[in-house]
Amino acid sequence: MRVLMVGDEFPPDIGGVSTYTWNLCRVLSKMGADVTLALPGRLRGTGFVPDGVDVRFLDGFTIPIVKRMFSARIAKGLRDLIRYGGFDVVHGQDIHSSMALFSIWYARRRKIPSAITCHTV
């Protein structure tokens, strides 16, 4: 199974979303899933990627206070990744992530099963 995971947070960011995403990618990969993780370019070179996970860093501008990213360049990168990646499922991390929301919207347009996890109650 080919899984695309999308979000704005990942270690070394501290918090529940980054920890959850890291662990989910790690476990899915160990179970045999082919996991691709789309992350903001600001996390490039952090060295926290689990073994067996293909990471795609997408560059764009960052809103510093909330560390959220989005731009036409990121939208095109996500669109192309979903269009040509052959994914069986797309999973967005957090309803506050513009990257995750766009990826879910685009996956649904392509009729690819998708889910988004709400980490805030």
Structure characterization notes:
- It is a single chain.
- The strands form two sheets. Strands 3-2-1-6-7 form a five-stranded parallel β-sheet, sandwiched between helices. A two-stranded antiparallel ribbon has the order 4-5.
- The protein has helices spanning 16-30, 72-84, 98-109, and strands at residues 2-6, 34-40, 53-58, 62-63, 68-69, 89-93, 114-117.
- The protein starts with a strand and ends with a strand.
- Strand 1, helix 1 and strand 2 form a beta-alpha-beta unit.
- It is of the alpha/beta class.
- Helix 2 crosses helix 3 (98-109).
- It is 33% helix and 26% strand.
- The model has no long low-confidence stretch (mean pLDDT 85).
- The protein contains three helices and seven strands.
- It has one domain: 3-Layer(aba) Sandwich (Rossmann fold), CATH 3.40.50.2000.
- The chain is globular.
